[in-house]
Design goal:
By secondary structure, the protein is α/β, with parallel strands linked by helices. It is built from 13 helices and nine strands. Strands 1, 2, 3, 4, 5, 6, 7, 8 and 9 form a nine-stranded mixed beta sheet that branches. Helix 1 packs across helix 8, helix 4 crosses helix 9 and helix 5 runs antiparallel to helix 6.
Length: about 300
Amino acid sequence: METKFNNTRKKTTENINRNRLLAAIPVVEHRFDFAGIHTPVLIGGDGPPVILLHGPGESSLWWMRVIPMLTKTHRVIVPDLPGHGDSKINRDSLNTDLVFEWLSRLIKQTCPSPPVLVGNILGGSIGARFAIGHGEQIRQLVMVNSLGLGRFRPAPGFAFGLFRFIIRPTEKNFNLFFPHCIYDVDDLQRQMGEHWDPFVAYNLECARDKKRSKAMNFLMKKLGIPKIPSEDLRKIDVPTTLIWGRLDKANKLKIAETASKKYDWPLHVIEKTRDDPKLERPGEFVRALSSVFKTSKTMANFAR
């Protein structure tokens, strides 16, 4: 698989908060057009490729706390999902086939070999659906607190907080909803330090944008919330692993435990975290992911 990507980097984006966060990450931001979708992609590190897909309403920057660790051993490729972050859909409409074409082209143009595909929440569901039909393009699949594996039945407090924030994406409503996604918001704020304010500000800007909200709603409705049929999940023929925050209020741990037993997928549970362990417990998350990479390396050596 040949890697072809444009080395041209925007020296600055139009967003000050995004720039401040990018400056803290050991990556270069590239700009691509994949299937008519303008896509910022963060690329850094050397080694076997790994693609990181974020959750709904997020951006590539939600991986900022694990990227520095992962780039020490891997080529890390982190896109903004279609219509998220700084991604823009330069087409009349978005459809599911276009999302899979977008991901296929991303892999072909940025990965020198089939990557490990890691997806969180919505990114996990997109990754699973892609693996069902395009498994030959990836080496392994990792689903993190993923949608699509069970019925989406979030806790009432989570559902109410989410609805309130979607209707009125104010800082107050963000602060009321975020504890349903993060186990200890105060601790996260302390750990992120000077990056906390631009992180919150950029996410509020994205949430208030109608085009971004429309793209998120489409992806959730078509590729996130619907449960993937068991007969389709059984078609996944690449090694698959689950990583889950124990205290998830939206995709409860029972969903992961059931899928792990049913499909014989290894499950790594991360304590004291909800649905975003990559952000809340980056060290524990990377340790869990490292065990996946070791399996991938062992399998590659065996194949030789």
